[in-house]
């Protein structure tokens, strides 16, 4: 309801604020090592995309918000389960939750907006709407402004997956390793990775 209230703001102001929010959220998240701060600046960047979507088409803003809530819920459930607070804590995830490591990797890349994951869907639709409304310069600038966010999510993915030491058949994991993941986390992880094929349906039904 609050988003639809501010949708009466002039379009130029909304588009400018959305672009500035995307730039600030991306650049300020580059030097952070706390996961909580990274997700905060990521929220600022996604708020910029949401404001632009609200200016273009309110239904698209609803789809963007629903996708973002799904992705962040998946991330928060994962970090709560592994008690991750800093980037260095991500490197120990594999020792306790081996099954969670690939799910966490795809969820982070999806939140960064990497195709063909679910997080790419709202950005793709927003950029398409900007091009259709003869705003190619804003679309290009907005796409470039999302690169810093994609970079720090790629860095988180690198720390959580590619820094795992080489394993041999004799490698032992931590005692009392968690073999089963919560059903809610599994459901959110599936949605975070596989909504993209439903893009035409979601775009025209919301």
TrEMBL record:
The keyword Transmembrane helix applies. GO terms for biological process: mitochondrial electron transport, NADH to ubiquinone. GO terms for molecular function: NADH dehydrogenase (ubiquinone) activity. The chain crosses the membrane at residues 14-31, 38-56, 62-84, 96-114, 134-153, 184-204. It is found in: Mitochondrion inner membrane. It is a multi-pass membrane protein. Residues 14-141 form the NADH:quinone oxidoreductase/Mrp antiporter transmembrane domain. Keywords: Electron transport, Membrane, Mitochondrion, Mitochondrion inner membrane, NAD, Respiratory chain, Translocase, Transmembrane, Transmembrane helix, Transport, Ubiquinone. Its EC number is 7.1.1.2. One of its GO terms (cellular component) is mitochondrial inner membrane. Its main location: mitochondrion. It catalyses: a ubiquinone + NADH + 5 H(+)(in) = a ubiquinol + NAD(+) + 4 H(+)(out). Core subunit of the mitochondrial membrane respiratory chain NADH dehydrogenase (Complex I) which catalyzes electron transfer from NADH through the respiratory chain, using ubiquinone as an electron acceptor. Essential for the catalytic activity and assembly of complex I. This is NADH-ubiquinone oxidoreductase chain 2. It comes from Lygodactylus sp. 3 aff. bivittis MV-2021.
């Amino acid at each position: 309801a609050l988003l639809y209230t501010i949708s009466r703001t002039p379009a130029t102001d909304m588009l400018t604020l959305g672009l500035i929010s995307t730039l600030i959220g991306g650049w300020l998240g580059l030097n952070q090592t706390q996961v909580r701060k990274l997700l905060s600046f990521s929220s600022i960047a996604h708020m910029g995309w949401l404001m632009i979507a609200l200016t273009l088409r309110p239904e698209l803003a609803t789809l963007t918000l629903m996708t973002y809530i799904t992705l962040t819920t998946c991330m928060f459930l994962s970090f709560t389960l592994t008690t991750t607070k800093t980037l260095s804590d991500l490197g120990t995830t594999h020792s306790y939750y081996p099954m969670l490591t690939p799910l966490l990797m795809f969820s982070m890349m999806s939140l960064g907006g990497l195709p063909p994951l679910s997080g790419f869907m709202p950005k793709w639709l927003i950029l398409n709407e900007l091009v259709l409304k003869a705003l190619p310069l804003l679309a290009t600038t907005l796409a470039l402004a999302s690169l810093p966010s994609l970079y720090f999510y790629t860095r988180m993915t690198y720390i959580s997956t590619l820094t795992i030491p080489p394993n041999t058949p004799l490698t032992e994991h931590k005692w009392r390793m968690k073999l089963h993941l919560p059903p809610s986390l599994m459901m959110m992880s599936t949605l975070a990775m596989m909504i993209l094929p439903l893009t035409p349906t979601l775009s025209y039904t919301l």
